[in-house]
Amino acid sequence: MGRLDNKIALVTGAGQGIGEAIVELFAREGAHVVVSDLDLARANEVAAQIVRSGGRAAACGLDVTDEPGWQRAIAWIQAELGGLDILVNNAGVALVKSIEDTSLAQFRNVMRVNVEGVFLGIKHAAPALAARAKGRATTAAIVNLASVLGVQGIPDNIAYGTSKAAVRQLSRCAAIEFAERDTPIRVNAVLPAVTDTPMVRREIEEWAELGTFGTRDVETTRAAFGARVPLKRIGSAAEIAYTVLFAASDESSFTTGAEYAVDGGRLAV
Ligand SMILES: NC(=O)c1ccc[n+]([C@@H]2O[C@H](COP(=O)([O-])OP(=O)(O)OC[C@H]3O[C@@H](n4cnc5c(N)ncnc54)[C@H](O)[C@@H]3O)[C@@H](O)[C@H]2O)c1
């Protein structure tokens, strides 16, 4: 028995990093996964690897800022797979820049992907999620990837930090609207910190360039960043994926509007 048997799950930004770890874990737990990403070639590779390992997966090119793209993706999933049980809004972009150096265009781009992308996902997946959950004993689930940096302020992070605070509020507003209107969809947020993915590897190099953590050396920056975590290390994408799995599965059936920090203890300090 898998923890997601008979579930159909769409994960955005699943071509690498945390999203890739989520689709791999979901497929191992019995879900039919839709691996979507801006980069269709990477989504295809991840889906093919899952199928080679005995899982069920389809790939889909989806830019989360593209509203007609969302409509096409959801219609395709309903027609080809028979409906949708789980949406993971994982796609996101980072921006390591001071306030002074952040242009309005850059600020808006982060908001477009990280905030509008999640809004569009919730809006366009909700009818399909609710339709499949109606009349069943379980609810559908949306899991949004926010961040510890949507709670804590750090320098050179104005756009990303603001966008991730907004993702937390998108999650709460959707959770309560669905609950109060008897729409069978739970919405929860997962807040990772410093997870070893291409995004963070790039950020560490950019922090080193700016000297954000008092050094311009990449390895010293990586160590300094890890040292800020009470568990004194950077997390793995698989460690985030396990919490997303719980929030997406029926095991969390009495949970909505909640936040799960997967942060090595950062928010407890
Ligand atoms: N890595 C961390 O430490 C960390 C910490 C907190 C939160 N997060 C959040 O977790 C999520 C995944 O992060 P990651 O570290 O795996 O990032 P990543 O950059 O390694 O991977 C992100 C994926 O999203 C895709 N993507 C980017 N823009 C897109 C768009 N417009 N439409 C569709 N796909 C798009 C990219 O192609 C890429 O495959 C993000 O929302 C990120 O903000 C990550």
Automatic annotation (TrEMBL):
Domain of life assignment: Bacteria
Keyword line: Oxidoreductase
A Pfam family per the record: adh_short_C2
MF GO annotations: oxidoreductase activity
InterPro entries with a match to the protein in the record: NAD(P)-bd_dom_sf (IPR036291), Sc_DH/Rdtase_CS (IPR020904), SDR_fam (IPR002347)
Keyword set includes Oxidoreductase: yes
Family: Belongs to the short-chain dehydrogenases/reductases (SDR) family.
The protein's name in its UniProt record: SDR family oxidoreductase
Organism: Paraburkholderia pallida
